[in-house]
Every structure is written in C-alpha cells, then in structure tokens.
User: What shape does this take?
Amino acid sequence: MANKEEVLDSILTQGMLPLFFYEDAEVSVEIVRTLYKAGVRVLEYTNRGKEALHNFRLIKKAVVEEMPCLYLGIGTIKTGLEAETFVDAGADFLVSPIVDNEVAMVASNYKMLWIPGCMTPTEIHIAQQYKAMLIKLFPANILGPAFMSSIRELFAGQLFIPTGGVEIEAGNISGWFRSGVCAVGMGSKLISKQVLDERLYEQLYADTVKALELVQLSK
Assistant: This one.
C-alpha cells in the first residue's frame, strides 16, 4: 500500500492531478497509458458510474504490469463502504467531494492520503480536525482564486488543490498558484468528453505535456 507522504510528495512535485471517469474499460486504460507516457506519475480515477470498480481493477492491473512509479487514486468517494471497496481494489489514495467522517476513518486506518472536498471555511476546519494533509477546493470554478487568496492566512500551512474548471491556460493556472494552492486538479478541461468519445490520444498526450509545462512554470 502506498505511503501517504510519498503520494502527497508526488502530487506536489507534479503540481497537477489529472482525473476522469469513462464507461468503457479499454478506453479508460488507454487514457491512463497516454497520461503516463506524457509524464504523469499520479492520477485520480473517479467513482462516477456503475463501471467504475470494474474499470479501476483493470487500470490497476495495467499500472502494476506496465507503469512503474504511478500512483493511482480513486475519487468521488462519499461513504466508508466505497472507501473500503476501492482500498481492496488497490487504490493508493482517496479523494472525496465532501468531508465524511467514515471515509476519514478508513483513510486513517490504512494510513492513506485522503483529499476531502471543501467549499467553506467551516468545512476546511472540519477537514483539518480529521488531519487532512491536502484539501480539495471544490467546485473551483465557483470559488475562484480570490477565495483561496482570502482564506490562505486563516489556514496557514494547509495545502490546497482546486478541482473543477481549471483551464489549460497560462493565466488561469498561474493565477491559482499565485493565490496559494500547491497543485491543480485537471478534469474535463484536460480529458474532455470529445477526447474520450473520439479516442483522441495524441491530442491528450500533447495537452498533458503542455499542462505539465505550464504548471512547472507557475509553481
């Protein structure tokens, strides 16, 4: 099982956490292969459909066989049962859109990195009480960098990652890092429905390389 400090360090070093879900298992595996070829070493598959567990297991098998040093997390985890199920399937870390005490307990029991989603100072405070090392600002497109700038001194030393609406655009990414985040989550703006439906792997490769470069310039 992955060490939570090592997973966190990988996210901080990469400065970006790609995330996606797709119903087709083979496409899901190929997307992960493409991200890996572009330089990604930590990513999140999201629990957004009935195929998620089956697909996650296939992705994990491919990671073990083909992609050394890649940390594979599971997102959209809202209950303790979901957390236990995906830990059993080989998840290296857990990501939630909410703060849930059962998920927090599962993560604590396995000494795993858990990234809860927060939208208010109160939620951030509760997440800190659960010892969340990294907190997801969600939905980031609603909150914006100004929110991060406003709360950073309230929660000095806390690590934050915005997810939802972060663009592959220098001004957008640099704006987030200037506001005080340590990394950015990249979902549909990087791995779009068109990329998934039309199997645009070359486009995804190029966009991922560009996004990683922009992040490194912005950090």
Q: What stands out?
A: The first strand starts at residue 16 and ends at 20. The first helix runs from residue 4 to 14.
